[in-house]
Write a structure and sequence with these properties.
The protein has 224 residues and is mainly alpha-helical. It contains 7 helices and 2 strands, in the order H-H-E-H-H-H-H-H-E. A two-stranded parallel ribbon has the order 1-2. The chain is globular, with a radius of gyration of 17 Å.
């Protein structure tokens, strides 16, 4: 629980100081959409499988990306990271690692290999850069799970995905409030019906491909 004094500090922070956080989401999406070749169906790439296995590997790939990001954040904390922020980001890192390992164990011998990531565009020494990227990743993750739910056939997997997306949404809300207090559920992610955004696997992977160096093959991944 955030102490009253620290809560007030965050509340008093100028929103304009962190305006770049919103830009990160747009830039992330645009970077993925610039490619004429989506790079997702390379026959030499890591094959995700088909059906539920493909969807699980899709989630596993995203959890690998998030776990790698937060591991790097905590390996080289940005300048001025408070004790409070360190605690929050450590918890998120541990959650993402747990999610990654859960999928790896659940998929077993059909799990994809560990993906190589590229975070060279992120300034890990900058609070603004790290939190803006974290916000982009968390919002993307929530929209990915929301979009993938309809593609899962096994209700047991669907129930587990529901438990994980709720944790990802908690992360997204926390990161947003660290950037600008009270912005945890603004209209950029929650529509007029009170529903969270969703994206198809193809849309998500086009965005995430900015940070994934490994060639992938999702030709049999269910989508819409």
């Amino acid at each position: 629980m955030m102490k009253d004094t620290e809560h007030s500090v965050f509340k008093r922070r100028s929103f304009l100081r962190y305006a770049g956080a919103g830009v990160a989401v747009t830039a992330l999406a645009m970077a993925g959409c610039k490619k004429d070749d989506d790079g997702l169906h390379d026959n030499d790439g890591v094959y995700f499988g088909r059906g539920d296995i493909a969807v699980l590997n899709y989630a596993y790939a995203l959890e690998q990306l998030e776990a790698a990001f937060y591991t790097q954040v905590m390996a080289s904390p940005y300048s001025g990271m408070s004790t409070l922020e360190q605690g929050y980001l450590t918890d998120i890192r541990d959650h993402e690692i747990a999610h990654r390992e859960f999928f790896k164990a659940a998929i077993a011998d059909k799990a994809i290999t560990s993906l190589e990531v590229d975070f060279s565009s992120i300034n890990f020494s900058s609070r603004d850069s790290v939190l803006a990227t974290a916000k982009a990743f968390e919002d993307l993750g929530v929209s990915a799970y929301n979009g993938a739910g309809r593609l899962i056939e096994d209700v047991k997997y669907l129930a587990l995905a529901g438990k994980i997306v709720s944790v990802e949404a908690r992360h997204a809300a926390l990161i947003r409030d660290l950037i600008s207090n009270g912005s945890f559920a603004d209209n950029s992610v929650v529509d007029a019906n009170g529903l969270d955004t969703s994206r198809s696997p193809v849309a998500v992977l086009k965005i995430a491909s900015t940070y994934i160096k490994t060639k992938i093959n999702v030709k049999d991944l269910p989508t819409y």
